Amino acid sequence: MSVININKHSFKKEVLESEKPVLLDIWAPWSGRNSKNLAEEIASEREDIKVVRMNAHDSPELSAELNIKHVPSMALFKNGKIISRTIETGIKASILAIL
Questions:
Q1: What is the pTM of this model?
Q2: What CATH number is attached to the domain comprising 61?
């Protein structure tokens, strides 16, 4: 499965209403680290979850609503609720641990 890019308009459909757990990769162009490759790798390996990416810079209202404090970071949603978060986006093991 490929990574889906989302924004405030598609967040409800792609994350909150998803039947599968959703790994949300939160990034910004000004961040020194990029988690895109890791998100794509996890998406290709795990068919049991949906992997989505959100540009925090382009979605400041949604970032605030989700209480995003660090970029990049990842959050795992299940049944429309955040059940886990990590800011160690460069360490695949820490991401897989939240799944």
A1: 0.88
A2: 3.40.30.10
